[in-house]
Amino acid sequence: xxxxxxxxxxxxxxxxxxxxxxxxxxxxxxxxxxxxxxxxxxxxxxxxxxxxxxxxxxxxxxxxxxxxxxxxxxxxxxxxxxxxxxxxxxxxxxxxxxxxxxxxxxxxxxxxxxxxxxxxxxxx
Length: 124
Fold this sequence. Notes:
Elements: H1 2-13, E1 18-23, E2 38-43, E3 48-56, E4 60-64, E5 70-74, E6 78-86, H2 88-123
Antiparallel strand pairs: 1-6, 2-3, 2-6, 3-4, 4-5
Helix pairs in contact: 1-2
């Protein structure tokens, strides 16, 4: 039981809240993406990519997919672009909420166990 509670607590703390946000295709003067961002790209030929950006220039971006394949996509070929942003406040709130929940559960389990121990010692 204790291991299950600890496993639940650890997994709850590691949950990351993310969302995809639609952005305009970057203009050469003001790119809205940066190296390290994860993006979902749909080209004008309706080919979809999910990439982690490794390089950005004024006319194209380069990124790797989950399989490690590298793709170079010109900004003029992009029909839709979404950037994955992490929601740090949501993640922290979820972790804090999970921690409080685990503490309350452990407290209740402790009270029940203490009550049973007192009850059994009173009967002897």
